Amino acid sequence: MHTRSSDQLPRTAPLIVLGCQHVLVMYAGAIAIPLVLGAALGLPKEQIAFLINADLFASGIATIIQAVGIGPFGVRLPVMMGVTFTAMGPMIAIGMDPNLGLLGIYGATIAAGIVGIIVAPVVGKLLRFFPPVVTGTEIMAVGLSLMGVAAAWSAGGFGNPDFGNPLYLCIAAVVLLSIVLLLRFARGFLNSIAVLLGLLIGFALSGSLGLVSLAEVRDAPWFGVVVPFHFGMPAFSFWSVAAMCIVMFVTFIESTGMFLALGEIVGDPVDEKDLVKGFRADGLGTLVGGIFNTFPHTSYAQNIGLVSVTGVKSRWVCAVAGVILLLLALFPKVAIVVASIPPCVLGGAGVVMFGVVTASGIGVLSRVDFKATGNLYIVAISLGLGMIPVVSPKFFSKFPHDLAPVLESPVLLTALSAIVLNIFFNGVGSSAETAEELRLATKEAEAA
How does 150-186 read in b/e, with b if 16+ C-beta sit within 10 Å? Predict the structure, then answer.
């Protein structure tokens, strides 16, 4: 029986070291979601710290399921799972509803995970509605919509009475410059964790200037367990669930390109059955996330890039990385320290992280034929409509409040517009052609 490249098991010491490397590469992205959402919703530091631990815990479980596989769940490739930025807009809209808050986010996440598991077998048939012109536009919308968050962070954070203080802007600039220099001159592993190192530099600088308070660290326990429904039983709203289900489907489309490209990188081709198992794991990871107080999950592209760069193809490396994430989630003091990072530090890193998301969308769009009738207008109109809630937050204020998760989400508005316009201009292609286009677009983006 032929042994797949991804099934090979390295020796114990290299296995642990390589697992740690995967954790470090994805750590900045993993903790960014709780930090962004916590700042946007005005949560206290203790709750943000808990969200960080919950995020790491659920990411660890989802990674193990995806990499190792459990029955019909898991693509069984070297994949790291984490919370997706695609869900950020809808989550902020849901969380800012006083009738829903965090519990509404968790209810929508749980429902989306269940729906994702159920519809996973038919997703392959629906790929035809998501060619690169649609997915690239949607990914661009994710990055562009979050730039306002990066700007607010850089100026001191939401609700800061000293908002715009030049000191905050200077610290954000130092972080940004540090990351740029590391990306330009560092090599190998240091280059791959440039964002994390930039955050550490900014944290140290802010601490030296008296902008960091670690008083809560003393009172936090050394050891803590992430328990289900920590904040209470989830709340369910039709439009919130609908919005998150759309996010779930978009993550499936993103995962398709990643799985196909990763299968080619490791030399283990991915077929439709493998894709369905991967989609089910995405859905199960999202369900687990909602139960354990965190958010929708997807595969992390930066770790796929790491597999390509290092040439280490074993899925067991990512499985060990998942165990490391579970262990990290057990230490509340560490999460409190992370939650103490000043917003201005996050702002400098946010410009890079959100900009990379935008650039990834551009990379996907690079395979689109803009000379063909309609493609230019699909991107232009969809982005224009999607950015309305960003540039004019009160634009839909007279509509029913229950529609806010959809109407106030740049990502969902862009996705819905792009899907409809693509059908209008281009009709419906085949799922096989779309899957191949997504694979090529993702592979080229990873190479870049």
Answer: bebbbbbbeebeeeeeeebbebbbbbbebbeebeeee
Instruction: Summarize pLDDT for 267-308 with one digit per residue, the tens.
Output: 777 777 888 899 999 999 999 999 999 989 888 766 666 676
Nearest to 142 by CA among 359, 365, 434: 359
Residue 355 vs residues 157, 263, 393: alpha-carbon distances, Å:
19, 27, 22
- Going by pLDDT thresholds of 50, 70 and 90, the confidence category of residue 179 is confident
- Strand, coil or helix: 268: coil
Q: In whole angstroms, what is the distance from residue 392 CA to residue 76 CA?
A: 44
Confidence (pTM): 0.70
Q: Are 103 and 233 in contact (CB under 8 A)?
A: yes
Detail the DSSP E strand segments found in 31-168.
81-83
For residues 85 and 357, is the Cβ–Cβ distance under 8 A? yes
Q: How far apart are the first and last CA of the chain?
A: 36
Q: Which conformational region is residue 50 in: left (phi greater than 0), alpha (psi within -120 to 50 degrees), or beta? A: alpha
